[in-house]
């Protein structure tokens, strides 16, 4: 596949989204909007006689908006899989800084700053003093308590799992 999904390929998937079959004109509009064409130009390309009226009507339709979102997500996934999209730490930083600049409340600002601190590894781990007086205290702790006591935080992602075989 060339990196773009065609509507003929995806129109069958609309049913799973709860979208009734779109007309050829609607599909063309959705495709053009997914390609980044502005709504009026997309309506003209789709052959609507009155593009402004068509845009007003189509923009209110949940099925059209859902189809556009779906198509954009499919194209994004193809681009990511093809390696055409690379998201770096610098990209994330720029987005967090933009979110911080747009924040309306102090809490939104704090969340953006906290995310930046975490992204750049600037937070120092909390020091926890642990008083263990005998081995049995540790034997009764679960893994989470032991890790917390050791100051470790393990976050596993299913994508990072590896299958290993025990050899006897």
TrEMBL record:
Superkingdom of source: Bacteria
Identification of the protein by name: Terminase small subunit
Source organism of this protein record: Pseudoalteromonas espejiana
Lineage: Bacteria, Pseudomonadati, Pseudomonadota, Gammaproteobacteria, Alteromonadales
């Amino acid at each position: 596949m060339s990196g773009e999904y065609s509507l003929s390929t995806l129109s069958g998937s609309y049913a799973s989204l709860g979208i009734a079959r779109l007309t050829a004109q609607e599909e063309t509009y959705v495709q053009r909007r997914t390609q980044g064409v502005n709504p009026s130009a997309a309506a003209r390309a789709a052959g609507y006689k009155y593009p402004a009226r068509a845009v007003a009507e189509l923009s209110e339709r949940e099925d059209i908006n859902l189809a556009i979102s779906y198509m954009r997500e499919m194209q994004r996934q193809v681009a990511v899989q093809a390696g055409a999209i690379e998201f770096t730490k610098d990209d994330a930083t720029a987005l967090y800084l933009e979110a911080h600049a747009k924040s309306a409340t102090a809490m939104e600002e704090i969340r953006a700053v906290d995310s930046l601190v975490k992204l750049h590894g600037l937070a120092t781990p909390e020091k926890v003093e642990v008083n263990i007086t005998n081995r049995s205290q540790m034997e009764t702790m679960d893994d989470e308590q032991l890790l917390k006591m050791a100051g470790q935080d393990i976050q596993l992602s299913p994508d990072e799992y590896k299958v290993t075989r025990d050899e006897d």
